[in-house]
Amino acid sequence: MKTLTLAAIRCSLVFTAVTGSLVSIQPAQAYTVTLQQMGANVVANGSGAINLTGLTFFSSGIDFTARIRAGVGVIITGPPGGSGDVDLYTGFTGPTSFGSGFFFFPNTGSGDIVGIDAQSFGGLLAVPPGYLSGAALSDSMTFNNATLASLGVTPGTYIWSWGTGLPNQNFTLVIGGAGVPDGGSTVSLLGCALLGLTALRRKLSC
Fold first, then answer.
1. How many of the other CB atoms lie within 10 Å of CB of 117?
2. I want to staple 55 with a disulfide (CB 3.0 to 4.6 A). Which of 29, 75, 87, 91 is the partner?
3. What is the pLDDT of residues 43-77, one digit of tens each?
């Protein structure tokens, strides 16, 4: 009885430690914009971080304002109007469009100016002036009395990437969805670990 009790305690501790570690795994969140229909409006929300490693600095102080132009792969989130000063980088690859729409400017917006221009000068990534690589970014913009169709965007997930595959070396646009699935890798990892732990508990008779 004493042996079984010690085995049960040992098994419980192992199970708690491993499952606790799995739950605490939080994949780095790269910068992602979701463009969704919300009532009578279309809302874009951006958040995450950008790793500038692998990009080439192009210019700064350019007047970039919040807007969308799906036909040439442009989406810039943040407050409308204003100076729109940014730092621009080149060196990414990805889709050159995400629909057929022309220029549309938001009615309201807030936060950081961040965006992709997929075609100009071979492609430009815009970040706030003096942006520190890896720092958190957050912004939004709203198009009143609009639909995804009226903006000429095509629902789907669009990814621009660069570098060698390090965390946050990509910019993702999700149109018509709430976020980017992780491909099931996290769920699969957790499932396999739990199966292994179940087998361990049976072996230890706990």
1. 20
2. 91
3. 999 999 999 999 999 999 777 899 999 999 999 99
